[in-house]
Amino acid sequence: MPPQHKLYWVFHYLLLAAFMAFAMFPLFWLLKVSITPNDLLYSEGVRLWPSRITFEHYASVVKHTRFLLFFRNSLMVSSATAVLATLVAGAAGYGFSRFHFRGKFFIVGLMLITQMFPLVMIVAPIFRLLSPLGLTNSLSGLVIVYTAFNVPFASFLMQSFFDAIPPDLEEAALIDGANRFTALCKIIVPLTLPGLAATIGFVFTAAWSELLFALMLNSSADVSTFPVGLLAFVSKFSVDFGQMMAAGVLALVPVCGFFLFIQRYLVQGLTAGAVKG
Amino acid sequence: MASSGRRIEPYLYTLPSVLLIAAIMLVPLVIGLSYAFRDITLLDPMSGDFVGLDHFREVYADASFWNALKNTVTWTGASVVLQFSLGLVLALLLARPFKGRAPVQLLVFLPWAVPSFLSALNWAWLFNPVVGPLPYWFKAAGLMKTPDNLLSDPQHALWGPIIANVWWGIPFFAITLLAALQSIPKDIYEAAAIDGAGSIARFRRITLPLLAPTMVIAILLRTVWIANFADLIFVMTRGGPADSTQILSSYIFTVAFQRLDFGYASALAAVLLALLLLYACALVGLRQALAARN
Amino acid sequence: MLIRLLLGCACTLLCARAGADTTLRLVEVLSSPERTETLQGLVGTFEKQNPGVHVEITSLAWSSAFEKFATMVSAGDTPDVVEMPDRWLSLYAGNGKLESLEAYLAQWGETAGLNDRALQVARAVDNTAYLLPYGLYLRALFYNKTVFREAGIAGPPKTLEEFHAAAQKIAALPGKSGYCLRGGPGGLNAWIIFGAAMAGNNTFFNADGTSTFADPGWVKGTAWLVDLYQHGLAPKDSVNWGFNEVVAGFYSGSCAMVDQDPDALIAIAARMKPDQFGVAPMPKGPSGKAFPTLGYVGWSIFKSSAHKDLDWKLIQVLDGPAGNLIWNQRVGALPVYKAAEKAPYYSSDQLKGWFAELADKDEVPTLMPTQLPGFAFFADSLAVRTSQQALLGQLSPDNMNKQWAAYLTKAKQKQARGK
């Protein structure tokens, strides 16, 4: 890459700083409210930093609520969904990318349509569908529902990443006698690591913050996820902002860890030269 | 033997997803849509008569529907345009390696990880002059005469949830476009640079066309999702004041759970579905036309 | 030794299995961690009295409780006992989901101890008791003593004129407002309270079933409140204020007066010191009367329950005189038992305000017509939208009341037709 002007880099860093400020400020506010004692919450609301800080909200969340259980549930559901959805969507995306077949248009169309209907109208039918199967009030039921919802988008995403890789690579392997599936796993997949990382990241985050189905399908605390747990801080008479923000900050920790993990793959560029012509 | 195996292959790859989606989503979708043709009141065992197209006639005549539709267009349009353009800029900024890229990347992607409910409450808090700083900054910047709550102003209240939505949604486009950018082989850029193309020309001739398929899908899906996404509005303004921030999706929720009229709510949802389908067809058609031109 | 231990274990296991294990499902909807704790305590007492019976408590977050519970019930996932708010009663009782408690009440020794209002509200739907109320909620006026002192006002306003004058004095102070208006969802109570006070009566319907909302007295009430807002006596943002914003305004002192139920007292008392706020009866209108709204919550048994007698036993523990006192101290409602009013808990300074209200013959507790079909839509959607339009000047008070009257008349007719 040709070297860039210094001016370009100044501009580059300034813009980045602006983005970071925009992204971080509300998160900073989350943090700030989480360490403000209850009696100062309204009287010192506008200040950038409270006159007295406290960690009682964090202690409360960890000791007096079942948040650690909710995090555990969320982690389990989100990881399972991420893996399952990426596998299923990867296969579908590959199918869409490499083949033209009868019914492709309809399958793609149907996938699109499932994303267009307001979810609130299908909650009741889904509940009735899953109830006799024992999948309501369970974590596995949630995983299945979340996978179903995320597969369409994940498939399209994976398709576009597969599209960027010329089919000649598999053709070459097929001519050499390998079957398509092995070619897919051994050759294509390593080249789509950024795409895989992005897909896993999306599905994990989507499942992590999902509220409607976690709320409607599961009732008992043992199988509640963390967004549902947040709702409990909103009682009829008060929103316990301090504890809610503390729980929100705590919840960002596993997600940060997850992002850090996939980040490496996200920015791994294609090794130039392997894909010529 | 090889050819028949080949013919089944695509179906094998797509089968798991099709089965899953058909079972979990299509069946409930059809059931949900069927409510639109019946008179269904929540919890009323006596309701359920078939009423044909009555609900759709009601939709056409419903002023609240047209108001919600107008707001939906504003909401979706503004959110998508801002999220996409800012997300693209961010992706371009992050595409080049630089010192500190890893932590910067992590920090700018974090908003995506905050559940929408928490994000909405946080932003509502920020906009409230009693406890938040933004009204005072708006006044200082000359955008407001007195530090008022943006969410209470019927002319501009929708911008509150839009800003919150943009904050939350930039990482989506940034991550998608970044991953797509990373897939473009570097040698193409090098070859163009050697041929003397400047960075703007490289962007226009190489980056944009190669990104186009991903961009179209991302924009299409994001638009569809945002049109249906009422969480932020519901928590921040409840559709008020005076329905100025009511979008179709929140109106459907209101009809379903306050009027308990699942039949009418379903009809509204069906109309929304039809409109989004039209939009999808238009976008895909546009992309085919552009691809054909190249 | 070991063998005896093993035998002992085996015996316990077998015996535990032999005791018929019944599980009752109890759903609470106005949940908070403290309430759940108290509920678990009361449930523990019940379980001790009835060995072999286990109660499974499901706590729904109030902000989504209605939608969640409705979805559960419509899909057949019904509990045995549920906490039933007044606004939900007509929906579930009207659709035949609840068991009538008349037979149980007739045999119960404590029924005579319930005060008249409790029995009246229990029978709100079809004149049949579908719930056993645990608490009554009467609106009263909370006022900020500190701001009042600052504005030079001696005491809480007793009439609407005094209220208006006090609001004006307070609004003259920089950064302060008189009334924390709840212009957003949940604000219907205030419109009805002030409307009825101006009209001098709280009859919602004429003898012929038409709504009285379009009458000049009620319109004057609406106009009075709109006027208050448009002259800056309520904060400009309050047009879309929900409960959280209202109390945020009250806590921070930016608005000095708010009408609220006794259960809000707990939250307010946790955030303000006793000398910073007080509670007074609602101010009276030109006719010398005030009409604070009365709400109630109770326990109901689902018709689909397989253990109705056990359910009633549970309710007796939760809502008998002893349990009720414990429960109400946690939830802050006014008691349903005549004897309870003498309990020491109820003579605290703040609660005196409510008892003064109850004792005053010119403060007439008003039941809103929650049992009308479509009332939820009226309260949560139509009233909110039209009242916001009125506050913003997009709709005249006259037109707003006309729309309300039209809707309620239709609802009343629908009810009369028996759906």
Tell me the layout of helices and strands.
The complex is a heterotrimer of chains A (277), B (294) and C (419).
Chain A (H helix, E strand, L loop, with lengths): L5 H29 L21 H9 L2 H32 L5 H11 L8 H8 L8 H25 L4 H8 L4 H12 L1 H17 L2 H6 L8 H6 L9 H26 L11
Helix pairs in contact in A: 1-12, 2-12, 3-6, 3-9, 4-6, 6-9, 7-8, 9-12
Chain B lengths: L1 H33 L3 E2 L9 E2 L3 H8 L1 H33 L5 H9 L6 H12 L6 H7 L18 H24 L3 H9 L4 H30 L2 H6 L11 H10 L4 H32 L1
Antiparallel strand pairs in B: 1-2
Helix pairs in contact in B: 2-12, 3-7, 3-9, 5-7, 7-9, 9-12, 11-12
Chain C lengths: L1 H17 L3 E7 L4 H17 L3 E7 L2 H13 L6 E5 H9 L7 H6 L8 H7 L9 E7 L1 E5 H7 L8 H12 L5 E3 L8 H12 L16 H15 L12 H9 L3 E6 L3 H8 L5 E4 L12 E9 L6 H12 L1 H11 L17 H11 L6 E2 L7 H17 L5 H20 L3
Parallel strand pairs in C: 1-2, 1-3, 6-7, 9-10
Antiparallel strand pairs in C: 3-9, 4-9, 5-7, 5-8
Helix pairs in contact in C: 2-13, 2-14, 9-10, 13-14, 16-17
Give the amount of beta strand of chain B, in percent: under 5%
> What is the tally of helical segments of chain C?
17
Using the alpha-carbon principal axes, give the shape of chain B: globular
The total strand number of chain B stands at 2
The parts of chain B where pLDDT drops under 50 for at least 5 residues are: none
Task: Describe the sheet with the most strands of chain B.
Answer: 2 strands, antiparallel
Mean pLDDT of chain B: 87
The most extensive interface, with participating residues per chain, is:
A-B, 105 and 104 residues
Number of domains of chain C: 2
CATH class of the largest domain in chain C: Alpha Beta
Outline the biggest β-sheet of chain C: 6 strands, mixed
Overall geometry of chain C? globular
Helix percent band of chain B:
over 70%
Beta content of chain C comes to 5-15%
How do the SSEs of chain C run, as a string of H and E?
HEHEHEHHHEEHHEHHHEHEEHHHEHH
Summary keywords:
heterotrimer; A: 277 residues; MetI-like fold; disordered C terminus; B: 294 residues; mainly alpha; 2 strands
Write up what this structure looks like.
The complex is a heterotrimer of chains A (about 280), B (about 290) and C (about 425). Chain A is mostly helical and about 280 residues long. Chain A has 2 domains: about 1-55; about 65-265, MetI-like fold (Orthogonal Bundle), CATH 1.10.3720.10. Chain A is built from 12 helices and no strands. Chain A has helices at about 5-35, 55-65, 65-100, 105-115, 125-130, 140-165, 170-175, 180-190, 195-210, 210-215, 225-230, 240-265. With about 290 residues, chain B is mostly helical. Chain B has one domain (about 55-295): MetI-like (MetI-like fold), CATH 1.10.3720. A two-stranded antiparallel sheet of chain B has the order 1-2. The two termini of chain B are about 40 Å apart. By secondary structure, chain C is α/β, with parallel strands linked by helices. Helix content of chain C is about 50%, strand content about 15%. In chain C, the strands form 2 sheets. In chain C, strands 1, 2, 3, 4, 9 and 10 form a 6-stranded mixed sheet that branches. In chain C, strands 6-7-5-8 form a 4-stranded mixed sheet. In chain C, α2 links the parallel β1 (about 20-30) and β2. In chain C, α9 packs across α10 (about 215-230). Residues about 15-20 of chain C have low confidence and may be disordered. Chains in contact: A-B, A-C, B-C. Chains A and B meet through α1, α3, α4, α5 and α6 of A and α1, α3, α4, α5 and α7 of B.
